[in-house]
């Protein structure tokens, strides 16, 4: 379970992600699956706020921050689908 936030980390984000991970564990995960892992990616984070927010949670959750760059490095361009490819893949969902 990955959640991307376009603003800095807030403690309530950890609680929401914990809820989502619990829901996936209860509704989607099977006995043959490993534990659901929650990954929260924010624009920025305070290590102290993250530590206190995750301290008593028992689910495997991690928090990281991202950096925005103007250009995607050449080595990654072929690994990531284009907008057109994503739209084509999702286009058939309206028919269901």
TrEMBL record:
Residues 1-81 form the YhcG PDDEXK nuclease domain. InterPro entries: PD-DEXK-like_domain (IPR053148), YhcG_C (IPR009362). It comes from the Bacteria. Coiled coil: none annotated. Transmembrane segments: none annotated. Pfam families: YhcG_C (PF06250). This is YhcG PDDEXK nuclease domain-containing protein. It comes from Stieleria neptunia.
């Amino acid at each position: 379970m990955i959640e991307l936030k376009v603003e800095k980390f807030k403690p309530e984000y950890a609680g929401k992600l914990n809820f989502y991970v619990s829901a996936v564990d209860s509704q989607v995960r099977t006995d043959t699956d490993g534990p659901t892992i929650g990954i929260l990616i924010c624009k920025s984070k305070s290590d102290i706020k993250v530590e206190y927010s995750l301290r008593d949670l028992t689910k495997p959750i991690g928090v990281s921050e991202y950096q925005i760059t103007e250009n995607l490095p050449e080595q990654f361009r072929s690994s990531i689908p284009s907008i057109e490819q994503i739209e084509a893949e999702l286009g058939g969902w309206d028919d269901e």
